[in-house]
Design brief:
Two copies of one chain form a homodimer.
Chain A lengths: L6 H8 L3 H9 L6 H14 L5 H8 L4 E5 L10 H16 L3 E5 L4 H13 L5 E5 L6 H8 L4 E4 L15 E4 L1 H14 L5 E5 L5 H17 L4 H6 L1 E3 L4 H15 L3 E4 L2 H11 L5 E4 L3 H6 L2 E4 L2 H13 L16 E4 L2 E3 L10
Parallel strand pairs in A: 1-2, 1-3, 3-4, 4-5, 5-11, 6-7, 6-8, 8-9, 9-10
Antiparallel strand pairs in A: 10-12
Helix pairs in contact in A: 1-2, 1-3, 5-14, 6-7, 8-9, 11-12
Chain lengths: 344, 344
């Protein structure tokens, strides 16, 4: 699609891998001098400009951020990304930036959209959501010198000290830790957990928050942890089924959940016998008086814009090593008393 | 902001009102010949091009639709416009069109954003939501020859046969009529209504649907209608208060509502003693088993794109008189049995 030379073209002409070209651009010291010379010669020959887009953001040529929007769902927790989109658009407008939406069927289609938008010079930078370990999207953006920030960690081995890219995320560990600690402080002794199957960067992080709060309170074995928790796909029905299992076998006296969808199902299934805490503080939770952990999406949006428009310009290579390369914001526990809604 | 001549410039140079310039462009037959000549001379002198943007959509120069997005709310019914945005973006992408978001503090600020986006040639057409009677935004877009379609009627005297612009809307009258008729068919005799204060184009339309279904079923006086209905601001709390009043004084045996927020409050306040039907089929309604009227937002998005990219190109002046200038799509009643959610 592109008439501009890409990192692939440079690699082909130089007879090296894309990774080597990327190394020459970002960490030239680790590349052998003769290889480096060959790559630099290919870059000059082709007129490859990896940093053009980053410069464009700083000069605000198109003043536009690109973000993927997914097909509408009727899910409860899906509203979080909508709320993030509102916050991002609102705060971007204050800086003279607009938001361009696009759709993609999968990560590779999303990469094709990146290339299309880059080639048309329609956006200055990308904002990515729903990151995962080994995400090919961020790899492509890095290799192609595109400015971007993710809402979500790289979920690599050491996100904090060695991030592969600039990111903002909400500390799910902290949120579940707070929720669990609050229930323990209220006198509950066996606080259970309903979350998602592993591996899940977000899900495993939230589960660790629950586990660590329990362990800080007293000894608890892995067998006990397993008996007091369930891993199910997200959904009201699934949350209900998990709660019935926990009540039957797990001897729990309170439950924290990885999402409001799970928590709503758990609340209904428990018949109100034990406290339930959800995650995301969705309109459903607010309307029903369900306790929940709120993600500060205004802070997330502010962090994304800060990283995009700051000295980094959304590119890690531009950042001095001592600069903050990420923002991990703390969620807020909202405790409520549920409404009584009898059947008709 | 604009270096391009506007309809205001033409009016000033010709010494006439903006409306007269608009008439010369759209209905020249009703303008006196000497006035028409003066306006046409001013148009030629200034190089005013009212139809440029419409042509741009047909040639798809920027391939972008502009739509306003509001600050995030925690409201339940607010998710409808988010779901419309998802559907619009998804369907626009299939036609090679993208969606650009912008924000505005009020209708006049939104008009300033229109002008800014037009001057930068960043969008080909606008999609407007939340229309109201005498909306200055549509008047500005018509006068400035901008392509646009609204999700929402003009709410004028005769929207159907003499629309001031191209629009798509959901037939709220039909939705409330269906809901009320379904409850009457189940044997309920005094079906009450909780809606919004008049005047409200959307709200008054939904109330008429309830009223007409009751009247088709048997005689009902205006006093009885007043006793069986309440008009309150949207919200769960307000819906609950209205339901308590109706139960105390209105002798209702079922209630239909203008929104799921009102319906949720009514459901809680009724203690499940009588059936409640909401409007919008939000995730809250689905999760709690609340009956509701679903707006077919995929159909709305398809209608908007059809009118924008069809022969009209979003401009009424291009449409032959016999062509459909609007789409009024029918919502769907979804009947459910509520969950029992006891307090903790």
């Amino acid at each position: 699609m592109s008439a501009l030379p890409t990192i692939h073209d440079v690699a082909r002409v130089a007879g090296v891998s894309r990774q080597t070209v990327s190394n020459v651009l970002n960490t030239p010291a680790i590349v052998r001098p003769d290889t480096r010379a060959r790559v630099q010669s290919a870059i000059a020959e082709l007129g490859y400009r990896p940093h053009e887009s980053a410069r464009r953001l700083r000069t605000r040529k198109s003043s536009t951020l690109g973000i993927r929007i997914d097909p509408m769902t009727d899910g409860i927790s899906g509203s979080v990304l909508d709320r993030f989109l509102h916050a991002l658009t609102e705060q971007a407008a204050r800086q003279g930036l607009r938001v361009m939406l696009f759709t993609a069927t999968d990560p590779h289609d999303e990469i094709a959209q990146f290339a299309r938008l880059r080639d048309a010079a329609d956006v200055d930078a990308f904002v990515l959501t729903s990151t995962f370990h080994g995400d090919p999207r961020t790899q492509w953006l890095i290799e192609n010198g595109q400015s971007f920030v993710t809402f979500g960690r790289p979920w690599g081995i050491d996100d904090m000290n060695d991030p592969q890219h600039l990111w903002v995320d909400v500390d799910g560990w902290f949120g579940l830790h707070e929720a669990t600690a609050a229930l323990l402080a209220q006198g509950h002794r066996r606080v259970g957990y309903i979350g998602w199957p592993s591996p899940s960067g977000t899900g495993d992080d939230r589960r660790r928050g629950w586990r660590d709060a329990l362990r800080e309170h007293g000894p608890v074995s892995d067998d006990e942890l397993a008996a007091m928790s369930r891993a199910v796909e997200d959904g009201v029905t699934q949350g209900g089924a998990a709660m019935r299992e926990l009540l039957a076998t797990g001897d729990v006296d309170a439950v924290v959940c990885a999402s409001d969808s799970l928590a709503l199902g758990a609340l209904i299934a428990s018949g109100g016998r034990i406290p339930v805490v959800g995650y995301d503080n969705t309109p459903v939770a607010a309307a029903l008086g369900l306790s929940s952990v709120e993600q500060p999406l205004d802070e997330v949006a502010a962090g994304v814009l800060d990283l995009l428009t700051g000295v980094h310009g959304g590119r890690l290579g531009d950042a001095p090593a001592h600069d903050p390369r990420h923002r991990l914001v703390r969620p807020r526990l909202i405790l409520r008393t549920p409404e009584r809604i009898p059947a008709q």
